[in-house]
# Entry
Amino acid sequence: MPVIEVHNLKKYYKVHQKEPGLAGSIKSLFSRKYYDAKAVDGVSFEIDAGELVGFIGPNGAGKTTTLKVLSGLLYPTAGHVSVLGYTPWDRKPAFQKQFSLVMGQKNQLWWDLPAMESFILNKEIYEVPKEQFQKTLDELVELLEVRDFLKVQVRKLSLGQRMKMELIAALIHSPKILFLDEPTIGLDVVMQKKMRDFIKEYNHRSNSTIILTSHYMDDVKELCERVIIIDKGKLLFDGALSEIIKKFANHKVLTVVFSEPVDEEKLKNIGQIKEFDYPKAIISVRRSATSLAAAELLQRFPVADLNIEEPQIEDIIREVFTGKDLA
Amino acid sequence: MRKYLTVFAVDWQNQFIYRLNFFLWRFRNVLRVLMTYFLWTSIFAYRTTVFGYTREQIMAYLLLVIFLYGFVGSCPSNDNVGGEVSSGALNNFLVKPIGYLRYWFTRDLSSKLLNTVFAVGEISLLWFIFRPALVFSSQPLIIFLGILMLASAVVIFYLLGKLAISIVFWAPENTWGLMFMVLVFTEILTGLIFPLDILPSHIFTALQFTPFPYLLYFPLVTFIGRLSPQLSFQYLLQSLIWLGILYSLLRKVWSAGLKNYSAYGG
# Structure
């Protein structure tokens, strides 16, 4: 039984176009040109309880817009959306008590007060019973190692500490569904890793459903078994991370180390040279021609070492977005 | 209800962080009174009554008006809501089971309480300096009507401000345009600077068909006993009618605004 159902979701914005310069500004006072920006254009998917799904796509792909529709912030232009059986933009309190939205670039904590005050306020807003509040808070504080900072003014916390506090504030009512929009943005590598560990652990412990958007492939690779790729408002892919390779990678990568110098021109007959820096070369070849290319390399060139690998997921996704053929 | 009490408590703590800001704001209020005081002193230099008011009556009026203005006019929502809408911080509230307009009304009440505490102090000080003869109505009914008018004034001012700010839903860069107009009208047409009945009577009558005199002037003249109970009651009703009109207008505009709201930022 899916907890999130999205069918043919569309969200168009009217965007006002201004010509550059002062003359353009004056002109726009009198007549404005509008065009429809198709932020989300016919996206459908379903998500089951307990899933941890990664939403990926370049900037402006429609990820955040989709999350905003799912959390009831935006009214869609068309399509059917149901989250936990509710229509999100009705903004029913019974629905709102069961999910949380964390945006890496927006904060909900009271800037001038210790984070604890915001937690207490959220406890009342979500009507969390006292014992449950204490228990959840203790767990989260332990897991995120922030006990020492609970009484420090939020403005005096580091970005990483603040992000952890934001998470606690968002989780204090034990939401069944969690929307995380760029939760690791701006954090250093160590803190990113800690956040990831936390999200994973939280998903296991609470069996909550999590949708995560991120620019960092590491986030998605480490956390999500399932990914949904959107670009320009359209759904490009929905499935297991490993399936991306099968579906989009029509090539493999050969990494060769030569024992003697070779002629680069001759090497071009094998496949597309991605990198050549003697003694190492990286060659991309069609998937079906892999064994033939490897055999040829071994026969005709002085090969010290040869590796056949799947391409990196980052590379595949980048190429999917830029629309380039790989091999 | 409890959630709003907590909002009140948290806001109360938050206000103490901005001590300097707060003192400067109060200082500005005292300066305003002094300015009006000196203006009126020079007007009274060569005569004993002006527009039917004696010097003492005017002074009493002015002292009371800052007290009431501290209560009705302290409205931090007017400075913050527009920015929160245009920056997208409104999102934080729309996803939670809390009413955004109620949330800000609660924060305004918290600010009003703090301001009133200080206004009492300032007024006592000014009273010691100028010793005006303060006259209050001694009729409990009148006082009761006055309190109701004051409560209505608080809500009317809140609704007016939020209505002016609603423009931001359609023009996110215009957080201040209409709000500024409302504040200018508030300064002139509510009785903040002079008692409104010194205006020509047709203008004074026309003003009754705007919400402004119900913010300060009518509650004030009720408290000092210049109105008969019948008249007080009539103005209270008119005030409540304005409250009703503005409330239903704001509901409509706000929900249309939210439909148009594109949850800016990202």
In short: The first helix of chain B runs from residue 2 to 17. The mean pLDDT of chain B is 88. Chain B touches chain A through 25 residues (CB under 8 Å). Chain B has one domain: 2-260.
